[in-house]
Amino acid sequence: MSGQDWNTALSVFFVTYALGAVPANIMLQKLGPRIWLPTMMLSVSIILVCASLQKNFAGWTAFRVLLGAVEAGVFPGCSAVLTTWYSPHEVHTRMTIFYMGASSAGAFSGLLAYAIGQLDGTWGYSGWRWIYCLEGVFSALLSIGAFFVIYDTPSKVGFLTDEEKRFVVLRHKFSAGGESGVAEKEEFSWAAAKQALTSVHVYACVLMEFTLCVVVYGVSFVLPTIIANLGYSAANAQALTAPPYVFAALVTVFSGWAADRYKQRMLSVLLPNLLALIGFVIIIVSVRYKHLPGVTLFGVFFAIGGLYPISPAVTAWTALNLAGTMKRSVGIGAMIAFSQLGGIVGSNIYLAKEAPRYPVGFGISITMLGLFGIVWPVCYYFILKRINAKRAAVAPEVVREKYTDEQLAEMGDESPLFRYST
């Protein structure tokens, strides 16, 4: 395949992912996590195994189309499920542990690809075919096991007593509605889905997550090339991509813990973006000097370490500012769906002819990180603070005289008693 064919096939994944995320999270609410999530995981696994058999551009494109459609049911769904189990000031930490799987996978996949690649030629199959086949089989086994450990709701957990189940359910029901003391709506509702799709808070967070997708997908495609240009062999370059992802996993968990501990959502987005921006500047300046590989690798650590904490931070911020189980689930799906379109941009801005400096790719990445990763979160922070101040100016007693608890619950995050997380 030509370079353009490769980029086209990479791009179609993001289209079907974006189209599928919202319907997938609606199906999650209809069928429940125990059925929906393992089914989507198994579907991904089957498609990965089938990918090992494709032989041309058409087959590769079909694989990416199908993979995007079914993967749309996994990450957004898991993120939504976490918000139904934990209180607002616990969920970010849990999301970082979940998302840490992505950065850990980035570290492990490079090493795994290197190891499986040694099977090149075995039974007449190329190394890359073995990678897809074996990773698909491993994922399939995990998806089958997931069916036995995933529960739809805390009330259905077998190892909890009835009293413990009731405590967990009520604790989440009232804490998820903000500090209003009003229980949030948990029933399936098309009206709530519509509210999510029209919520300004979803699109405020899309700007941040879209930027991340542009940057992270773009740099992940060219990272081995950048490292290889430092004088390492292709195999060693693949292996050297692992340490930055390990560092990213540690930064991600710390970021989530700190955000929950100090209740700081804006800083949990801004600081990692700043770290990533510094990393990109170091890379673009040092990559021209092959005798300074350590400096370039240092920049890679900063860039990857800064990028990976951003997604759980933005997802948590989105979730905390949407009240109502259905609205939150669809809102998370919508935020991730629209943001994934950034992958189309990211997979096309790092041009092969510009290697290894990639001035266009790094230029776009640095600009977007500055505008939507640093400036915009600060603006959004002050917008939320102003809304909260206006609501705080009205006494709760006045609000309760005007609205019933049922009406306040229906309003969700638009309730005068709801306070947005900043």
UniProtKB/TrEMBL annotation:
**A Gene Ontology MF term for this entry?**
transmembrane transporter activity
Domain Major facilitator superfamily (MFS) profile: from-to ranges: 1-388
Example GO CC term: the record gives:
membrane
Question: Where found?
Answer: Membrane
Main subcellular location of this protein, as a coarse class: membrane
Coiled-coil annotated residue ranges, if any: none
Say if the entry is tagged with keyword Transport. Answer: yes
Q: How does it sit in the membrane?
A: Multi-pass membrane protein
Instruction: Give the record's keywords alphabetically.
Output: Membrane, Transmembrane, Transmembrane helix, Transport
Membrane spanning stretches? 6-28, 35-54, 66-85, 97-117, 129-151, 202-227, 239-258, 270-289, 295-320, 332-352, 358-383
Domain of life, per the record?
Eukaryota
Q: Quote the protein name from its UniProt record.
A: Major facilitator superfamily (MFS) profile domain-containing protein
